[in-house]
Amino acid sequence: MQRVYLDHNATTPLAPEVFKAMEPYLTGEFGNASSIHAWGQRAKAAVEEARENVARLLGAQASEIIFTSGGTESDNLAILGIVEAARTRSCTKHVVTTAIEHHAVLYAVKALERQGVRATYVPAGSSGVVDPLDIRRAITPDTVLISVMHANNELGTIQPIEEIGRIARDHGVAFHTDAVQSAGKIRVTAAPGVRLLSLSAHKLYGPKGVGALYARKGTPLRPLMYGGHHERDRRPGTENVPGIVGLGRAAELALEQGHEEASHLEKLRDHLEEQILRRVPCAYVNGGASPRLPTTSSISFTGIDGEGLVIALDMRGIACSTGAACSSGSLEPSHVLAAIGKSREEARSTIRFSLGRTTTREDIDYTLEVLSEVVNRLRSLSPNYKEATGDQLSAISIQK
Ligand SMILES: *Cc1c(COP(=O)(O)O)cnc(C)c1O
Q1: CATH 3.40.640.10 occupies which residues in the chain?
Q2: Engineering a disulfide at 175: which of 19, 168, 225, 383 sits with its beta carbon 3.0 to 4.6 angstroms away?
Q3: What's the burial of 229, exposed, middle or buried (CB within 10 Å: 0-12/13-18/19+)?
Q4: Residues of the chain with CATH 3.90.1150.10
Q5: In this predicted model, what pLDDT tens digit does every residue of 323-333 receive, in sequence order?
Q6: Which residues are catalytically annotated?
Q7: How many CB atoms lie within 10 A of CB 248?
Q8: Which residues of the chain have pLDDT under 70?
Q9: Is the dihedral of CA 250, 253, 257, 258 positive or negative?
Q10: So what's the architecture of 4-9+258-399 in CATH?
Q11: Residue 179: which residues within 8 A CB-CB, separation 6 or more?
Q12: Digit-coded pLDDT (tens) for 234-289
């Protein structure tokens, strides 16, 4: 059976170059980067080289990079760290974020709310893009942080972070962006308005369990944990040297290959979408008219249960997902699709394909072949879709 992996937004395979760079630090070069002896110094040098490479990917300075255990920790450190360090004239603090953030951001903000911080969740339109004017309107004199993701993990839609950064700067408010999905796929820079930016190694062909937070020079940040003086007192704990080396090499590869890779993958993604729309009736692309990551495609198939479709495709060797990997298994439909105005029915009928470095034209053609066959079979069994088969109009009325 052919095996096709189209779930790169959940995680990416480790690049062979990354594995090769990590290997010595999993074997002979096992030193603690804080030790004075030669083992320690070699580990320290490797960590600092990785820091340079991550900084270069973002157009930042090495001293502005904090290594963490991944995207979730970076988001939490940014949000909890800045809000706890912030001082306001009044005693209430306020945070502006959006309804389409990853749970690593949403739940961190919810945790702050339980401690008395106020929060505004700006909606995204049906396009899957947040309007910067809505962000501006949400700012109050108590606002200490704006957190808006760069690219959405379910839709791939790219948020106008330069503009939001300018607004944040004009109002003297710190701005954090979760760039976990965009880093390494499209150009991600620590633009002037961005104070904090999160990324994760395993979303860009690096290892799991390691990430970074960019924190612009002079950004006050309270650590989440207490211990040693690692990472300039902002993130204690013995460094994950092999992981950090892997992230550094992954960042270097992204900088070298990212641009070419993106245009190649965009062509494959467009081919996938065009052919689905041509071959499968009553299918539509979510966020398709907005600026998007070249790798992501969120597609609804009227009358189909998305989870059933994912399972049926898996049985034919194709891996995709119903949305965010961390929410699958929950019965609630995606908060992102709800936030862009999709009904429960529509959200349930949606699946996500996400392409990556090793995706080939053959992978896409095999997926197209299997997909039309599976969708037709599922629909022929679906009472919801029975009357609608081949009839666009009645399918649309069923959606409502
Ligand atoms: C995957 C992801 C995260 C979490 O990163 P981990 O390294 O898996 O903790 C955060 N934000 C977004 C947008 C993601 O896609």
Answers
A1: 16-254
A2: 168
A3: exposed
A4: 4-9+258-399
A5: 765 555 556 78
A6: 326
A7: 31
A8: 89, 324-331, 384-400
A9: positive
A10: Alpha-Beta Complex (3.90)
A11: 149, 150, 151, 188, 197, 198, 199
A12: 999 999 999 999 999 999 999 999 888 999 999 999 999 999 999 999 999 999 99
Which atom number of ligand 1 is nearest to the Cα of residue 72? 9
Cβ burial of 26 (10 Å; 0-12, 13-18, 19+) is: middle
Residue 115 neighbours by CB under 8 Å, 6+ apart: none
Ligand 1 site, residue 72, Cβ cutoff 6 A: yes
Q: Ligand 1 within 6 A of 211 CB?
A: yes
Nearest CA to ligand 1 atom 6: 71
Identify which of 321, 336, 328 has the alpha carbon closest to the alpha carbon of residue 159.
336
> Ligand 1 atom 10: the closest Cα is on which residue?
71
User: In terms of pTM, does the model score above 0.85?
Assistant: yes
Q: What CATH number belongs to 16-254? A: 3.40.640.10
- The gap between the terminal CA atoms of the chain, to the nearest Å, is 38
The model's pLDDT over 131-177, given as tens digits with 9 standing for 90+, comes to 999 999 999 999 999 999 999 999 999 999 999 999 999 999 999 99
- The whole-number pLDDT of residue 293 equals 97
CB 388 within 8 A of CB 374: no
Question: For the chain, what's the residue count?
Answer: 400
